[in-house]
Design brief:
Layout lengths: L2 E4 H6 L15 E5 L2 E4 L15 H33 L27 H13 L2 H17 L1 E2 L2 H8 L15 E2 L5 H12 L6 H26 L11 H10 L13 H5 L9 E5 L7 E2 L11 E7 L3 E9 L4 E11 L2 E7 L12 E9 L2 E9 L2
Antiparallel strand pairs: 1-3, 2-3, 4-5, 6-11, 7-8, 8-11, 9-10, 9-12, 12-13
Helix pairs in contact: 2-3, 2-7, 3-4, 3-7, 4-7
Bound molecules: heme C (2 copies).
């Protein structure tokens, strides 16, 4: 009972043939060869799911990785292929090639790991929005914290269980801490002492594809059986940063990525500066140096009332810069002790005389006079 119309006819009558409304009885399944076939059911989203076998998709994702699909379409295709077998329509009409672009973190850009991209797409096809977001969050969180390739993935290779046998030894494992392809691949290469082009790295990503495909199916099976439990929480060190930078206070950061991967700890006191205690002072302050007069070195205490860019610079009586002790560094609130060893910016001992220490922090500035007596 399929009715054929030409592409031209379709394009000139789009409203008449609006997708999903065709004849009210049939949807569009194929848009190809200049013809539109109105035939089988127009599936409503989300598409039906049936429990799948994690080991089957593991092997399939690993196989597809090497056979034209790479990581993203590999994971997507592995699960799709099982759905085609187990569920059939409407999955039979969907090409896994739609996910080609996700390989290498998105056409080689190293952004989101392709395995996660492919998994998220298939989850989004067969799970409602609220649950899909939860499962994807869980999957990405698991990916950041799990060791890859997993023991199971390595055992599969050692026991010769993969269809595609490119490399059969156990591979070194690591925790990437990031869903970014570039971070994940590079951290692994550093751990394994391999290059991106090495067969071990390719096999690592093939096994990773298997791990992610199998995990995705485990989650989907659990959700189907109404046994999915949500466990991922943002790690404490990231939450600590977001307590200020997230929506509650500064509202200038939107990410769950590990901040330290890119920023290190930008609030760490600069070299030579020691945090005395975490009690938050009421005001910014530069205290008088001690001892004073001094020879050859002296200390000063600074109070930082809130996170701010701080500078502490020593000048001579002519107003020339002698030593930059704190160089416009971002500092957390607290009281700190700073040492000056009586040298200039080049490490040379300075002469006896009067010096000025000037502290600035945002709009705050304060200067103290010091006396070096030799
Ligand atoms: C007590 C609140 C607080 C906490 C906790 C905190 N920050 Fe900040 N952070 C600030 C403030 C205030 C600034 C300065 C204003 C700004 O740039 O937004 C700042 C600035 C920054 C900047 C910009 C630096 C620059 O050079 O402009 C980065 C990056 C940053 N923080 C990262 C982090 C990271 C990573 C963490 C967790 C390790 C963290 N922050 C924890 C309050 C905080
Ligand atoms: C993938 C690398 C990456 C990660 C991970 C990352 N950042 Fe950033 N962040 C950047 C870059 C790049 C900038 C822009 C340049 C800059 O200011 O350093 C930036 C800017 C910032 C700024 C300045 C924002 C402004 O309005 O001036 C803050 C604050 C910041 N990041 C905090 C964080 C926190 C907190 C986290 C973790 C929750 C985090 N970042 C995770 C790369 C990253």
């Amino acid at each position: 009972m399929s009715k054929e119309i030409t592409r031209k006819e379709f394009l000139t009558n789009t409203s008449k043939y609006a997708i999903g409304a065709v004849a009210g009885v049939a949807g569009l399944d194929i848009l190809a060869g200049g013809k539109i076939l109105a035939g089988t059911k127009n599936p409503t989203w989300p598409w039906p799911y049936q429990p799948l076998d994690p080991d089957t998709v593991r092997d399939r994702a690993h196989y597809l990785y090497y056979n034209g699909m790479a990581c993203c379409a590999g994971v997507f295709g592995a699960i799709l292929d099982s759905l085609k077998t187990v569920v059939g329509e409407p999955y039979t009409n969907l090409p896994s090639e739609i996910m080609y672009y996700g390989g290498g973190g998105g056409v080689g850009w190293g952004t989101l790991c392709g395995t996660l991209n492919g998994a998220a797409a298939i989850i989004s096809l067969c799970v409602d929005k609220t649950n899909a977001n939860k499962i994807i969050n869980e999957l990405w969180g698991w990916y950041c914290q799990a060791e890859f390739p997993s023991d199971t993935a390595n055992d599969f290779a050692v026991q010769g269980k993969y269809t595609e046998k490119k490399y059969n030894d156990a591979l070194p494992q690591n925790v990437s801490g990031s869903p970014l392809c570039h971070v994940s691949v590079t951290e692994w290469c550093i751990t394994a002492q391999k290059k991106v082009g090495d067969i071990e790295r390719k096999e690592r990503c093939a096994r990773l594809a298997g791990d992610v495909a199998a995990k995705t199916v485990e989650y989907l099976n659990a959700l189907y059986a109404q046994q999915f439990t949500y466990t991922y929480v943002t790690p404490a060190d990231i939450q600590q940063c977001l307590a200020c930078h997230g929506p509650a206070v500064l509202n200038n950061v939107m990410t769950q990525l590990n901040c330290k991967t890119c920023h290190g700890d930008p609030h760490k006191p600069p070299a030579g500066v020691v945090l005395d205690n975490n009690n938050i002072p009421e005001d910014f302050l530069l205290s008088q140096n001690y001892p004073n007069p001094f020879n050859p070195s002296t200390k000063m205490q600074i109070s930082v009332a809130r996170p701010e860019k701080v500078s502490l610079i020593i000048y001579d009586v002519m107003g020339r810069e002698v030593k930059r002790l704190i160089n416009y560094d971002l500092m957390n609130a607290g009281k700190y002790t700073v040492d000056w060893d009586g040298t200039d910016n080049f490490g040379n001992k300075v002469a006896s005389g009067i010096y000025f220490a000037k502290m600035t922090a945002g709009a705050f500035h304060m200067t103290k006079k010091m006396n070096l007596v030799k």
